[in-house]
Amino acid sequence: MSVTIRPATGAQFSRIHGVGGYRPTRVIPNSEVLNWIDSSDEWIRTRSGIAERRWAGPEESVAEMSVQAAGKAIAMSGISPEQIGGVIVATVSHLKQTPAIATEIAQRLGCGTAPAFDISAACAGFGYGLSLADGMVRGGSAEYVLVIGVERLSDLTDKSDRSTAFIFGDGAGAAIVGPSDTPGIGKVIWGSDGSQADVISQTQAWDTAFAKPDAVNGAGDEAKWPALRMEGQTVFRWAVYDMAKVAQQALDAAGITADQLGAFIPHQANMRIIDSMIKALKLPAEVPVARDIVETGNTSAASIPLAMERMLERGQARSGDLALIIGFGAGLVYAAAVVTLP
Ligand SMILES: CC(C)(COP(=O)(O)OP(=O)(O)OC[C@H]1O[C@@H](n2cnc3c(N)ncnc32)[C@H](O)[C@@H]1OP(=O)(O)O)[C@@H](O)C(=O)NCCC(=O)NCCS
């Protein structure tokens, strides 16, 4: 007698049901950054597009910001937390190795015994989480999945490093992915290139840092707290040339042309990268583009959901519109998709 396993069955399609963000209260304008590095407001604005960023205070932990952002996404989606069957937290700046911060967040939100785990995919983290969530909903392992992108990059910023001190910000963005009658998430084009792992990375591993007697006290150059370092120009070229192609692949896979988009929501890394992508994609001028970087800086995994929430809040994009999202960063990693806005 042959027996077969009954497979899990999920929804035919998935979509984003709600989005929410949390921005720390402390605003750091460029003028404050000038206290740490030799630069100018004009240089920072013209080279990166950033005017100010938010840095989290002691109470604005990775978990606290996530709970705030997720609460808004849950409220917008109209579901109850018990319906969430998976919590995915994308972050590179939760400084405790284990347990995953996702379990605490799930518990605080009231998600019962939902599986909860963290992923490390830097600025592509939200797209990676979205791809997993889409698969979980359609594969039948969860009805609703909470995807959070959250960072406290201020904890990993070397304030004396001219090439990064002005870039990073803190915050959290969250989305609820669940079943849909019509397709709401196109094929996620995601990938990695480990040959460029050194292009953006932590300056030193924690064990190396702590092996030095003055590591935590920051005595001398060798003994600095680990921070993010970046080969800015290499990242810039990769983003402009390779990521525009990935964005186009996401459009093609979804069967959508640029003129059918209601919004373009790229990772908020640099305004010049955003402008180059617009050109490469031949995006019509009437398609609204997320430019949250001006007020928020680069918040890595949080940047796309934060920018999405802001565009909807400000009426720059509407629920039901098609949006092209693309994230890219340390790894190197990337993820792009066309989604229906909640
Ligand atoms: C970081 C970044 C803004 C730097 O801009 P850039 O034009 O590449 O700057 P460069 O490093 O080539 O330096 C250009 C000049 O500006 C100077 N400069 C560098 N940092 C400066 C600063 N903070 N303020 C003022 N001048 C600065 C350099 O000394 C150099 O001067 P020189 O021409 O006299 O030698 C840019 O490379 C970038 O945004 N890269 C991508 C970063 C990114 O997207 N990261 C996130 C990925 S997730």
DSSP helix fraction: 25-40%
**Number of helix segments?**
10
Uncertain spans: none
Largest beta sheet: what is the strand line-up?
A: 1-7-6-4-5
* Overall pLDDT level: 95
How would you spell out the order of helices and strands? EEHHEHEHEHEEEEHEHEHHHEE
- Count all strands and give the number: 13
Largest sheet: 5 strands, mixed
Ions, cofactors and other ligands present here are: coenzyme A
Rg value: 20 Å
Strand content: 15-25%
Output the structural class.
alpha/beta
Short description:
The longest helix is centred in the last third of the chain and has 23 residues, at 232-254. This protein has helices spanning 30-33, 41-48, 62-77, 101-109, 125-139, 206-211, 232-254, 271-280, 293-296, 303-313, and strands at residues 13-22, 26-29, 52-55, 84-90, 116-119, 144-152, 170-180, 189-192, 200-202, 228-230, 263-266, 322-329, 333-340. It is an alpha/beta fold.
Task: Describe this structure as you would to a colleague.
By secondary structure, the chain is of the alpha/beta class. It is built from ten helices and 13 strands. The strands form four sheets. It has a five-stranded mixed beta sheet with strand order 1-7-6-4-5, sandwiched between helices. Strands 8-13-12-11 form a four-stranded mixed beta sheet, sandwiched between helices. A two-stranded antiparallel ribbon has the order 2-3. β4, α4 (101-109) and β5 form a beta-alpha-beta unit. The longest helix is centred in the last third of the chain and has 23 residues, at 232-254. The radius of gyration is 20 Å and the shape is globular. The mean pLDDT is 95. The structure holds coenzyme A.
